[in-house]
Amino acid sequence: MKKIIALCMCMMMLGAARVLPAKIYIYIDAPATSKFPIAIEPFRNMSGVPGINDVASSLSTVISGDLEISGLFRLIDPKTFIANPADQDMAGDRIKWDDWSLLGAEALARGGVYQEEKGLRVEARLYDVVRGSFLSGKRYFGEPGDARLMGHKFADEIIYQLTGQKGIFQTKIAFVSDRTGRKEAYLVDFDGKNQTQVTSHRSIVLSPAWSPDGKKLLYTSYKSGNPDVYLRDLFHGQETKISHYRGINLAPDWSPDGGKIVLTLSEDNGNSDIYLISPQGEKLKRLTKEWANDVSPCWSPDGREIAFVSNRAGNPQIYIMDMSTEKVRRLTFAGIYNTSPAWSPRGDRIAYASMAGNAFSICTINTDGSNPRQLTDSGSCESPAWSPDGRHIAFSSSRTGKKKIHIMLADGSGARQVTGGEGNDTNPSWSPYIDYR
Amino acid sequence: METMKRNLWLLMMVIFVVSLVSLSACSRRSVKKDRRGGETLEEEAIKPMSEEGISEQELEEARRKVAELRGKEGAVLATVYFEFNDFSLSEQAKSVLAQNAAWLMNNSQRDVIIEGHCDERGTDEYNIALGERRANSAKRYLISLGVSAAQLSTISFGEERPDVQGHTEESWAKNRRAEFVVQ
To answer: Quick check: A183 and B121 CB within 8 A?
Structure first.
C-alpha cells in the first residue's frame, strides 16, 4: 500500500478541471427499474511489449468486476463486440457508435496501456454511446503491480460520472481471523484481494472499527491480559492502548465527527454499560446505568443518536439513545436475540443480526422500527457492516463451511464471498471512502 | 413469559433488599493486586448479593457450611456452570462456590482469577459482557461468604476459550462456566 502511495500515481484529467457530471445517467436513490447497459472494451497493449498484456487484461477484469458488484450495470458480453479495424488508436473520433448501440450499450469504457521509460502509463476513457460523446478520461502512471488499483480508480470514476456519487471500489474491509490459531485483525480489499495481517498479538483481537478518516483502526485485544481497546495508525503501524479501565473495554465505535468514541465498560461490578470516551481514552460520560448488559454501541451517521444492544427486557434487543436527551427507545421486538446493530451511512436503516434456533440471519429495519426485513437465509450470518455508500452490507457467514466474510447489496441480493482459505473470518468493518491520491 | 416473571420478581427483590441493606452496605477499601504485578489501592464498592435475589438467611446458612468445609481435608477449586444467556447461580453452583470459598479462606495468601466463559451461541461482544457477569456473580457470592475481595480478580473471555469443542447442548453446557485460576 505504502509503495503505491510513494509512487504517487499521478493522475490527471485529460480534459478540463473536475466538475460535477453534466448529466446523471443512473439515479442511485430511485428504486432500480433496469440495469444500465455498459460495454467495457478489453484494454489494449499500446506499446506491443508482451509484458503488459497481463496489465491490460487485469484492468478490464477489475473494472468489469467492480461494476458487476455495484449491482447497477448490465455488462455487455465482450464476445459480441464488433471489431473495428479502423480504430487502432485511443482517440474517440473513430469510434463507430452504431456498433455499440446495436449491442444495447449506453456507455462505453475503453483504455490502453503504454510502456514508458519508467513504468507504465494507462489511459482510460468513458463515452456516452447514445449521444456519441466523451464523458471523462484519466491517465495513470504506475508499475504492473498497480494494475488493480488503477482499475478500481477508473471504476470509481465511471460510477462518479454516471451517478454523481462516489464509488466504493478503493475501500477495504477490516476483519478478525483465527487462521494463525489466534484471533488477529486483518485488512482486505472490498473485492477479496490483498489480504494483510494487521496485528500479531498472539492473543485475542476482536471488533475492529475504522476512524472516520480511514487512517486508523480501533479494536479490543487481550494482549496485556485484559480486554482493552487499542488504536493503530495503519500507515505508520504505531499502536496505542487507549482504554484500559477495570473490567471489559469492548467494541469501540468512533463518532462521525472524529471527536468521541462509544464503547462498553464494566467497571460497575461487572455490569456492562455504554460509555463515551475521548480518542485518547479519557472517560467523558457514562451513558447507560442499567442492571442489564449494554453492549455493541454504534453511531448514527449524523452523530445524534447511538444504537446498542441491551437485555434490559430479558433478552438481547436493539435500542436507540438520543445523545442530547439520553432518552432510550426500543427498536426491535420480533425474535428473542437481536444484536450487532450497524447504522446505514444513509441514515434510514439499521442492520442487525437476529438469532432463530442456533443460527443468525442479517436483517435491516427502519430507524422507527417499521419494515423489518430478513436479508439472509443460508448459513449463520452475523456482524453486519455497511459500505460507506450504504449500498452494500458485509457480514460473516458459515454458509460455505467455515465462517467467512461475504458482501451483498443492501436488499440482500448479489451476495458473494470475499475471503477464503483457512480459519474463521468474523467481525467485518467496512472502511470509509479511501482514495490514495 | 417465564423470563419476564423472573425478571419482575428479581427487580422487586432488588428494590426490597437494596432499601434494607443500603444503610449497612459497606464500601470496603481493599488493596487489590494488579494482574500484571504491582499494587493499586482502589475504592471498591462491593454490592450485596441482593441482585441475585439471595436472602441474608440463606447466606448465613451458606457461611455455616463454609466454616464446616474449612475443617475438612482436600477442598479444591471447582468450576461453576450456568444456564444459556444467564449469570444467576444455581443451587449446584452455590454449593460449588461454598467449597471454593473454603479453599480460598484456607489459602488466604493465594490470589485467584475468576474467568467467565460462554458457549458459542450469541455474538462475540454480547458474550464477553455475559462472561463478565458470570465471573462477577461468582466473585460477589464468594465475598458474601467471607472471602477477601483482595484475593479475587475477574476476566471475561466470552466465547473465545471453550473448554470443549462441539456444537451440541452437551458441549455448550460445559462451556458456560466460571473457572478459577490460581496465581
So the answer is: no
